Amino acid sequence: MKMTVDFEECLKDSPRFRAALEEVEGDVAELELKLDKLVKLCIVMIDTGKAFCVANKQFMNGIRDLAQYSSNDAVVETSLTKFSDSLQEMINFHTILFDQTQRSIKAQLQNFVKEDLRKFKDAKKQFEKVSEEKENALVKNAQVQRNKQHEVEEATNILTATRKCFRHIALDYVLQINVLQSKRRSEILKSMLSFMYAHLAFFHQGYDLFSELGPYMKDLGAQLDRLVVDAAKEKREMEQKHSTIQQKDFSSDDSKLEYNVDAANGIVMEGYLFKRASNAFKTWNRRWFSIQNNQLVYQKKFKDNPTVVVEDLRLCTVKHCEDIERRFCFEVVSPTKSCMLQADSEKLRQAWIKAVQTSIATAYREKGDESEKLDKKSSPSTGSLDSGNESKDKLLKGESALQRVQCIPGNASCCDCGLADPRWASINLGITLCIECSGIHRSLGVHFSKVRSLTLDTWEPELLKLMCELGNDVINRVYEAKVEKMGIKKPQPGQRQEKEAYIKAKYVERKFVDKYSMSSSPPEQEKKTVSKSSEEKRLSISKLGPSDQVRVPPQSSVKSNDSGIQQSSDDGRESLPSTVSANSLYETEGERQDSSVFLDSKHFNPGLQLYRASYEKNLPKMAEALAHGADVNWANSEENKATPLIQAVLGGSLVTCEFLLQNGANVNQRDVQGRGPLHHATVLGHTGQVCLFLKRGANQHATDEEGKDPLTIAVEAANADIVTLLRLARMNEEMRESEGLYGQPGDETYQDIFRDFSQMASNNPEKLNRFQQDSQKF
Fold first, then answer.
1. Which segments constitute the Arf-GAP domain (predicted)?
2. Mean pLDDT in the chain?
3. Which of 160, 407, 458, 584 is most buried, most CB within 10 Å of its CB?
4. Residues 6 or more apart from 51 whose CB is under 8 A from it?
């Protein structure tokens, strides 16, 4: 399907789209002139032809008069009579030709001009009107001062309504353009073909002359039939595309915003920004900006040569600007000059700042080390998922959730029946399923299995990492441990009743779980905890200020992750500094009993195994504990009533937290100090975990025994990213309450920002460190 103007491009309202519209409008205007001229010439030709027929008829009557006059000469009389009869036949053919010409050229093309082109003009007028209204709304929204809240809200509402109207009318206009461009060929060719067939009938005596053109005309006639069919098909497809896009929610220009450092065309990000002029008047002009080829450039029109703002991004910095009256401003500073820019929203400003910062980092890597540049070209820009295993990282570089999940051992076939190429998954169990088994899992209830499609549903990054940490082989070693011993055969594909009974026995009744297989040896990490000195045990994180955080000397084998916690290069996971154990940070003297009291025990209950495995980031052992009946919200009375979810926070693993939440962990359950998972994640600076808990409904207003809520802790620690997340969540909550949108996800900008943080926390945790450093610098 060939479209003159692309529907997707019109949603951006980019200079490319405007240039395409300008070209199409000019072409249609010229087409209208040509058709009007042709219709007028046809009218003149028909009128002249009719006058010719009248004159020819008079001439024929003169010949007949001459024939009668020549009655004495039989040869002359017979010849003249025959000639007059032939002329009369020619006059009849002429009359038929002009009637056919009037129907094929004048009526048909005139109808096309009056009907189709008129619809195009009406659509154009509406588009121009709403486009002007949108521009006025954008300018008004940009000019309103931040301290005039009423005007801000009014301008924002007007801009939102105008954008929606603009999108609908723009889509209608593009549809009208594409339909017109598709129909014009068939209309012109159809009318001309009819006209030529009339001439073929008229010039029957010149058939030999037209015989060479005849096969072509016949072929053209057959092609015209196909064109009519194809045009009708294209019209239906474009109407369907138009309807599909129109049903999408495009409440703001932020909906299509994204940046990609590995874009094939070299453009990392592009969009409209207001730029403050460097003249004395400091005027603001709206320009189309883009980040490309390690430069920041802008242009007014698509055909204009880009104006370079920053020659080399490595030499510049970017920062927020809150000391001017205009909102959403940021400044790009280079050694020679600075450029003040304004976005249309806070989300757009954050996106542009992140895009510039990412481009700066990319430029340093590309220029600094050619080997890193080659490695970067060979890997996706979003980075591989952090599964703690290099070979698994390589497997997870597929293009889709299906490809990534099916790379895990055992996931290429259904976990329960063995059918190849499963397209469904249970996210709390971490397994892949065929469509029939997925239906049975749904019938069990979400407290046993939460089913999602690997191809139809959108996968959050933490969920995708969770699926890649487990897999069918891991889960079946737990839930099918006694299948062979009991002599039970797994159901085959197609055996619906057998499948239902087997799946219910496997996951609900847990008949195949080996109840004597639980690990009885204390984890190595807890052995280390026992050996810590009594002074370290007395440390409490509630007593530490932002400057008192425990550190370890930098070593070559240690690197930082997204939360600021030291990360070993051997296992690729977050761990606390080695000088102080994670549990001792949260225990005061007199509250904590020596862990050796229960470390000497030879038997662990499932809740305790889940508790310890959560800190160790050992998802297979956690799944085993749940299979043995562990309470996901089990509280350890020996350690301040901490829960497995709190231990997962201390262990520093985002995936472990997600696994517990998917299996029913209470995100708001607190320990004896009144601190829930959100408190602990904020204290430790785990940005990704804070983002996850807020998305899962954590109460950020809860206070601990010292009366501090997470926002207070984050402000005291000067953690800019976490402060931003908490304030955005609080603002979104207040907005939903004021608008009565209880149970709704909230503002789209809020969702997009949290989606960006989730992506970074899961795929590029090192970016959070850099953004935090930048925010502290400025």
1. 399-520
2. 75
3. 584
4. none
The whole-angstrom separation of Cα 663 and Cα 668 is 15
**What b-and-e string marks burial along 440-475, b requiring 16 or more CB atoms within 10 Å of the CB?**
bbbebeeebbbbbebeeeebbbbbbbbbbbbbbebb
SS3 (DSSP) at 640:
coil
State how beta strands 338-342 and 267-276 pair.
Answer: antiparallel
* Contact (CB, 8 A) for 711 and 679: no
Greatest pairwise CA separation for the chain in angstroms: 148
Instruction: Identify whether the C-beta of residue 287 lies closer than 8 Å to the C-beta of residue 299.
Output: yes
- Straight-line distance from the first to the last Cα atom of the chain, in angstroms, rounded to the nearest whole number: 51
State whether residue 269 is helix, strand or coil: strand
How are strands ordered across the β-sheet holding 329-333?
A: 307-310, 295-299, 284-292, 267-276, 338-342, 329-333, 317-321
Q: How far apart are CA 460 and CA 734, in angstroms?
A: 25
Cβ-based neighbours of 761, under 8 Å, separated by 6 or more = 461, 462, 562, 654, 687, 688, 689, 691, 692, 768
DSSP 66-130: HHHHTTT-HHHHHHHHHHHHHHHHHHHHHHHHHHHHIIIIIIHHHHIIIIIHHHHHHHHHHHHHH
Q: Which amino acid is at 273?
A: L
The pTM of the full predicted model, rounded to 2 decimals, is 0.43
Q: Which two tokens stand for residue 636?
A: 């350890």
Supply the Cα-derived Rg of the chain in whole angstroms: 38
Q: CA-to-CA distance for 569 and 386, rounded, in angstroms? A: 12
Beta strands in 277-413 (DSSP E): 284-292, 295-299, 307-310, 317-321, 329-333, 338-342
The span from the CA of 93 to the CA of 376, in Å, is 77
Q: pLDDT tens digit string along 301-344? A: 777 788 888 877 776 778 888 888 899 999 988 766 788 999 99
Q: Other CB atoms closer than 10 Å to residue 329's CB: what's the count?
A: 21
Asked if 289 contacts 340 with a C-beta cutoff of 8 angstroms, the reply is: no
pLDDT in tens, 631-669: 989 998 888 889 999 999 988 888 899 999 999 999 999
Give residue-wise pLDDT tens across range 738-766: 665 544 555 565 666 777 777 776 666 66
Q: Could you give the CA distance from residue 160 to residue 137 in angstroms, rounded to a whole number?
A: 9
CB 290 within 8 A of CB 6: no
Distance separating alpha carbons of residues 455 and 441, to the nearest angstrom:
18
With contact defined as beta carbons under 8 Å apart, do 214 and 108 qualify?
no
Average pLDDT over every residue of 233-241: 86
* Residue 423 in tokens: 């397209």
| CA–centroid distance for 535 within its chain | 51
Distance separating alpha carbons of residues 194 and 49, to the nearest angstrom: 18
- CB proximity list for 409: less than 8 A, separation 6 or greater: 471, 472, 473
Residue 143 CA to residue 328 CA, distance in Å, equals: 11
CA distance 521 to 499: 36
Q: Across the chain, how many H-helices and E-strands are there?
A: 29, 12
